[in-house]
């Protein structure tokens, strides 16, 4: 069993427990259900966009604890002040130290910035959770889903007004894409081995459908990486650890964007 298999098995248990506590109808009562959604796609298209999607995460299976002192409101506000195009907030608690509280706090602190719910999405119920806690878009990991499952989750997201970011790592996973997908992220990290290779983005970029918005994820740590990937057609760059491992993630992000 890979770490991804383990995470997904645990996530399915968590979802069943959540369903037993809070119904979809109760999730729909959240004030966040009434808000208009911010578009990450539009933010990445904007003139002068940095393209940086800065992530708040305190730990990961590959790195262990990254920063357990960081406060989500302070960090995400710092990211926005630095000029990011969007925010990504982990909601998986067991493996990434995330929470819905962090997602909601990031939303409240940054009302006009697109916020991604970063988690292992396997069930339509989780899409309602994302909306109920202030997310503007969801992440679908192709390695975890069949083509039909991805379509069903995409349809659910669209019905709630959310954008869809699909993450791929192999040529075979590209075959699972559907017309409802707004953005495609290429994960440079193999979720089964956690090895990172930037050339994964460059290689798969040539195989993605024409006109799709491309985002590169994982292993990005220098302005040279961003310039290199822009030449390969990428508009967005998901970065977390590079900022979160510092004492002041917001300042680290600002310093990075200035280099661009």
Automatic annotation (TrEMBL):
InterPro entries linked: Aldolase_TIM, Indole-3-glycerol_P_synth, Indole-3-glycerol_P_synth_dom, RibuloseP-bd_barrel
EC main group: lyase
GO biological process assignments: L-tryptophan biosynthetic process
GO molecular function terms noted in the UniProt entry: indole-3-glycerol-phosphate synthase activity; phosphoribosylanthranilate isomerase activity
Superkingdom in the source lineage: Bacteria
Coiled-coil zones: 1-28
UniProt domain Indole-3-glycerol phosphate synthase: residue ranges: 4-252
EC number(s) recorded for this UniProt protein: 4.1.1.48
Catalysed reaction, written as an equation: 1-(2-carboxyphenylamino)-1-deoxy-D-ribulose 5-phosphate + H(+) = (1S,2R)-1-C-(indol-3-yl)glycerol 3-phosphate + CO2 + H2O
Pfam entry (one): IGPS
This protein's pathway: Amino-acid biosynthesis; L-tryptophan biosynthesis; L-tryptophan from chorismate: step 4/5
Record keywords, A-Z: Amino-acid biosynthesis, Aromatic amino acid biosynthesis, Coiled coil, Decarboxylase, Lyase, Tryptophan biosynthesis
UniProt keyword Iron-sulfur present: no
PANTHER family, per the entry: INDOLE-3-GLYCEROL-PHOSPHATE SYNTHASE, TRYPTOPHAN BIOSYNTHESIS PROTEIN
Protein name as catalogued: indole-3-glycerol-phosphate synthase
